[in-house]
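Crash report, auto-generated. Payload:
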Amino acid sequence: MTALAVDMNQMGVAAKAAARRLAGSDTATRNGALEAIARGLEAGVAEILSANEQDIAGARSSGMDEHVIDRMILNKDRVQSMADACRTIAALPDPVREVLEDRTLPNGLELQRVRVPLGVLGVIYESRPNVTIDISALCLKSGNGVILRGGKEAFNTNAVLAQIARTAIESVGLPANCIQFVESTDRALVGEMLKMDRYIDLLIPRGSAELVRFVGENATMPAVTGGVGVCHTYIDAAADLDKALRIVLNAKVERPTVCNAMDTLLVHSSVAGKFLPELAKEFGVSGVEMRADSRAMAALKGIAQGQRVVPARSDDFGTEFLALIAAVKVVDTMDEAMDHIAEYGSGHSEAIITEDEAAAEQFLAEVDAAAVFANTSTYFNDGGQFGLGAEVAISTSKLHARGPMGLREIMTYKWVVRGDGQVRE
Amino acid sequence: MTALAVDMNQMGVAAKAAARRLAGSDTATRNGALEAIARGLEAGVAEILSANEQDIAGARSSGMDEHVIDRMILNKDRVQSMADACRTIAALPDPVREVLEDRTLPNGLELQRVRVPLGVLGVIYESRPNVTIDISALCLKSGNGVILRGGKEAFNTNAVLAQIARTAIESVGLPANCIQFVESTDRALVGEMLKMDRYIDLLIPRGSAELVRFVGENATMPAVTGGVGVCHTYIDAAADLDKALRIVLNAKVERPTVCNAMDTLLVHSSVAGKFLPELAKEFGVSGVEMRADSRAMAALKGIAQGQRVVPARSDDFGTEFLALIAAVKVVDTMDEAMDHIAEYGSGHSEAIITEDEAAAEQFLAEVDAAAVFANTSTYFNDGGQFGLGAEVAISTSKLHARGPMGLREIMTYKWVVRGDGQVRE
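Recovered output after restart:
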């Protein structure tokens, strides 16, 4: 075995020690650190952009896909957005040591349930360098230490951003090791990180479905399950078809590469004949390919030639496309739609469009997903939209956190009991 | 491969279907089911006790330890306690569909966070047959289906209890398969159960540390980590030694076989010379063996011959004794005590005894455990004591639930969004 470039174990020990001090720090110090990072970013724009140019040049020369490169590119505005994000997070109420329950037991014991940091988070992410700052800021605010492992394509940018954050937090008297960045692109270090359950309390994978799956299967510590959204929108018999059209277009076209975009459209047979041709026309304008089951194909027969409409294969249902593609299926009842969702959905975001309030309420109650929507777009499933301030991930797990994960969701609680000599008989 | 006696997959499918109906049922129906179980137990006492006698006879003839047999024994009073527990749980507020957050977003969307059942729980337990009823009752109340796998030593008793529960819930119109009992003692079925992540949302092991570890390492679905409590009590320099004596005795002697019993006593050097000899006398009366480090041995020198005091081996620290044994160590500072707890504790229950309020607050803030105590006994870490109504387990995980797990802790939430055609730009 050859020696690794970085001693991950040592990083773990340092993270635990720093996190313990961070957890005990006061609100003003942690908010001061966030402000210091914001200023550090503003002062360091030239250095950041120069490191970023180096990464972009490297990515281009290695023949990387232009849309991946696009996600990596920073400019003055994007750096300013990172600084602004730090200030936004600083302005949120302090969640550390928030008292969630407080009561005096009959024997006089004072019982409290208090929100506390998890300890140390590990984050394995790809391409987008703003993750370095966004997650660092959320961890600082919530009192968690963090070990960051960014993608190799943005290594120089991430290293500069992490160094700016470390310098900033040290300037307010907190240990720099509250934030650590793995200073190597050696892939073996990811494997090491997944074994560090002694030091890392929660692992967050941010990137492709493949990365999320790999982390989930190999991490020895709890890991966030998420990112994969096979999202359905069901157009009920009682739908307002104008609203339906607007919502489906929003859920599919506005940002097709995100996890909350619509993948499969389910349409009640009584409205399919009217709705699907209208939708096909709009989808045609936006360049969306429809993969239609046989009944949807029949409804689209007249116009199928002009638009991108192809027969669905069975594996199109249950696929997260992350592209301008939608699977389309005609159903005869809402139950059939809900059964389809139960079988093919990933528990992320599911929507119904209907003016029948009873049907909407039944769908919202019975469909089992992180977020369920009536008469609106699955694209709203987002920490910012839900008012959580920011998000580290969207969880499709049912344990701990479900849906957008903000500050509270990277924290835990403990029971604090104050007595005066009480014993239990 | 030989065929297994029970088709676990079929049980999983049935559990999911039943749980979906249970989740949609109303408060009165679920509480009615609990009352029906209570009546079924009262009416079935003779049948229950006869099955129990069969189990006890089998256990005795197989040479089982008498204290394990003791845990299995039922009598009229113990059956009545199970019926009472059902009625107590029925009287608790309904947690299903409880609205945890409710707000209208600036765009008019109505956003709610709603408490919902996890789905299906799997429970693998040993010896105590009351678990069959207690967990079934908590699952019913919380809208979760459950698959029960009890120990082979109490198989007949558990089978009768589960049948009574199934008949009862069917009598109020709920599917009997909300509660299923694995009707075989084949150990291979436990392995099957651990692979059923498609059907079981959370696995709860109730029994030995070995069982908990085995489940944690082999389950494909989330499993409760808990049960193992290496609990410390630290006697500070500023402790009231009378209180300290009373609390330490309670934490060690009252019920030494439970996870919240004290394992290691840490004593500040300035009070060790006075406190330890007094404690040794009391421990002598109660039959507690002290395993003392060299400084504690020195403090106990004069009386060491008369009492059960032996030198500690290094592995006594970090051991959960579950017996009348305590490791004892002298420390020079509270920091040294907290470092010892950080290294050897299992994150379960940790206590400080001191009249110095600042010291107490620092200990409560910095020690990382499910429950931390000042001037009282770790034996209080219990769902009933904390007012949760009942508990399925005590979790030492930091994710999802920490400490006693009651109804809320076997549930999740979902985001419900009601709109009127809103789309996201």
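Post-recovery validation: Chain A has a mean pLDDT of 94.
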